[in-house]
Amino acid sequence: MKVLVTGAGGQVGQALQKLAPSCGIDIIALDRQALDITDQSVVRERVREHSPEVVINAAAYTAVDKAEEEVEAAFAINAQGAENLALACAASDIPFLHISTDFVFDGKKEGAYLEDDTAAPLSVYGKSKAEGELRIAAVSQKYIILRTAWVFGGAQNFVSTMLRLAKSHKELNIVDDQIGGPTASDNIAASLLKIAKQVQKAEFQSWGVFHYCGAPAVTWYGFAKTIFEHCADAPVVNPIPTEDYPVPAERPKNSVLDCGKIKQVFGIDQPDWQKALSGILGK
Ligand SMILES: NC(=O)c1ccc[n+]([C@@H]2O[C@H](COP(=O)([O-])OP(=O)(O)OC[C@H]3O[C@@H](n4cnc5c(N)ncnc54)[C@H](OP(=O)(O)O)[C@@H]3O)[C@@H](O)[C@H]2O)c1
């Protein structure tokens, strides 16, 4: 089975390339240089040229704080780029798998977010991703949008930042009133590959939005404490409220996603992020 992956240089893009061979999937991996998803005609050309059976979009503008200033770039990639791919897939009648985010929600709900809860993004990044979801749904039918959260496992993420800071700081203040489900890029990639196989079947009809994130839910402070359990020279970690760590983009306080639907439709279990973290940090 042939799957085209965009954004192949990113966390999820690289994990997809690593895991595909063991799933019997042949990946056409296109990084930003090979395919800029904001270019509609090139997107259509590449999809036609490679004639994949499924397209996975792992490309995105993910610099959450920078997006507050680079609004145009965030929307060009996360909204227009997503639409370009959805259109190209629809034109070739192939399934389109796209990744979205917990940041489409405002975090004010008590309890885990369901797929059909109202999107109310707080940040430019969240708005651009929510717009991407709407545009995909408007131009295609055979799509899966996988909303995930707090991705780690690649080169740049919360885990790598904590490990870097641990080298230069004896004490760190970490936000303790935002809660979410850290998710390993390998787990996301494995789920997308499993989904790619299932959506290819003629009888598959359950298109739409799915939630997928790690369990158990934790705050950034709790996540940091667990990361430092793997470090010999761990800094002291202090819990602080969001107000004490001002950043340009507002984040949802509650990012927890209910993952019941993906289990029911695809048989995919919620992953244990602590296990994935131990795998990465080697303990
Ligand atoms: N990271 C998180 O915590 C998180 C949380 C929830 C959801 N998500 C979603 O998960 C997906 C994967 O995220 P990730 O963490 O793997 O992101 P990532 O590591 O930042 O990778 C994104 C990749 O997209 C590429 N890209 C940017 N603009 C592009 C364009 N115009 N055309 C083609 N490629 C382009 C980037 O290339 P350059 O590096 O060259 O710019 C990068 O390689 C995204 O949809 C993201 O919104 C992420």
Radius of gyration over alpha carbons? 18 Å
Count every beta strand, where a strand is a DSSP E run of 2 or more residues: 12
Fold-level CATH name of the domain at 2-151 and 184-213: Rossmann fold
Bound molecule kinds, no repeats = NADP nicotinamide-adenine-dinucleotide phosphate
Mean pLDDT across the residues is: 96
* Structural class by SSE content: alpha/beta
Second CATH tier, the architecture of the domain at 2-151 and 184-213:
3-Layer(aba) Sandwich
Main sheet properties:
6 strands, parallel
Q: Count of helices?
A: 9
Strand order within the widest beta sheet: 2-1-3-4-5-10
What is the overall silhouette?
globular
Q: What is the CATH class designation of the domain at 2-151 and 184-213?
A: Alpha Beta
Contiguous low-pLDDT stretches (5 residues minimum) are none
Report how far the terminal alpha carbons are from each other: 35 Å
At the fourth level of CATH, the homologous superfamily of the domain at 2-151 and 184-213 is NAD(P)-binding Rossmann-like Domain
- The secondary-structure element order is EHEHEHEHEEHEEEHEEHEHH
What percent of residues are in strands?
Answer: 15-25%
Q: What's the helical proportion of residues? A: 25-40%
